[in-house]
Design brief:
The protein is of the alpha+beta class and about 200 residues long. The chain is built from nine helices and five strands, in the order H-H-H-H-H-H-H-E-E-E-H-E-E-H. A hairpin with a 2-residue loop joins strand 1 and strand 2. The model has no long low-confidence stretch (mean pLDDT about 85).
């Protein structure tokens, strides 16, 4: 199941900010949440614990369930190339992930909600499945009836955009649309996870 509790707690458990909002909270409290958070020592974690946490960080960053992540892993190992990089590419080209990366949403949770509620279109057709895999050349945008909503007005002004647009996207914030140009390369995916540890976790 997906985690539906307080999102900042996940960042504190991971030890890194998983969303923009979490940055100041993690800086103010750089230790795990809970009664014994201050006493916790991440360095005492064994090999299994380190790899498990890295896998959990990847799950939380993309807001996917364990079953979904396992399915992506099974797809990644069947592809040519490095399994860890293939796994990240699959996660990064989910519709919800690209809506976030293009600056149309402030967080992965908001991006998922926008897709679920039918605000997002792919090649002009409404798609309400956050896990929809966008293919290179496909154009993603905000539906005409949704464009006047406050979150999308803010997105059109670049409020949610990163300082550097992902090079595998062609983004038109004013038009509330973007196109996936090609498969993202590993060095272009800004995710605070060591995918090799995730590979080792699933390969054990």
């Amino acid at each position: 199941m997906r985690y539906t509790g307080p999102k900042v707690r996940l960042s504190r458990r991971a030890g890194v900010p998983l969303t923009r909002k979490a940055v100041r909270y993690v800086e103010a409290r750089p230790y795990p949440p809970g009664q014994h958070g201050r006493a916790a020592d991440r360095r005492k974690a064994g090999d299994y614990g380190v790899r498990l946490l890295e896998k959990q960080k990847l799950r939380w960053y993309y807001d996917v369930s364990e079953r979904q992540l396992r399915r992506y892993w099974d797809l990644a190992v069947r592809r040519p190339g490095r399994s860890g990089e293939e796994l990240l590419a699959l996660l990064e080209t989910r519709l919800a992930s690209l809506v976030l990366r293009a600056g149309l949403a402030p967080s992965i949770y908001a991006a998922r909600q926008y897709v679920n509620h039918g605000h997002i279109t792919v090649d002009g057709r409404k798609v309400d499945i956050p896990s929809y895999r966008v293919r290179p050349g496909q154009s993603v945008g905000v539906g005409d009836r949704s464009r006047r909503m406050q979150p999308f007005v803010a997105a059109s002004e670049g409020v949610y955009a990163d300082d550097r647009i992902a090079p595998y996207l062609d983004v038109d914030h004013g038009g509330l649309r973007f196109t996936l140009l090609r498969r993202p390369a590993r060095e272009e995916i800004a995710v605070p996870v060591d995918e090799q540890l995730v590979v080792e976790h699933y390969s054990r």
